[in-house]
Amino acid sequence: MSLPLPVRNAALFDEIANWLCQIPHAKTLGFQFVQGERGRATMMLPYDERLVGNRKTGVLHGGVITSLVDTTSALSIFSMLEAPCGFPTLDLRIDYLRPATPGLPVYCSAECYRLTREIAFTRATAYQDDQAQPVAYSVGTFMRGNSFAEPNAPKEV
Fold this sequence. Notes:
Blueprint: H1 10-22, H2 24-29, E1 32-37, E2 40-45, E3 52-54, E4 59-60, H3 62-78, E5 89-96, E6 106-115, E7 119-127, E8 136-143
Antiparallel strand pairs: 1-2, 2-6, 3-4, 5-8, 6-7, 7-8
């Protein structure tokens, strides 16, 4: 078993993690940063009745879970960068496996498993008490923005 590696640029990663939690959409939803290591990030969404999609069951709306997955996936990319760069979402596929249990927070752990000069590939799991019993599973691709691209970046990191 190998020990986790620290993020490549701690100041950049911390700044992005804080920023992602403070943008109006994420702040309204209540996203909270939990932890990061190289290639990985975890965020948390506290349960909030305002975010319920079905009032009869109390289950959170699927769009809220999608936002959490997308945001956490993007943050996992920044754990691997030396310098700031834009990474808009190209594609995000989510399989909803079960409804989130009402009253419990939802966590999302995401991994950037491949980072090329132009594209980042991620996978993420949204869960509550046990990551082995996910609420949702996702794979995503993100495009590196040209305006912030590192001029001497290797073709793959």
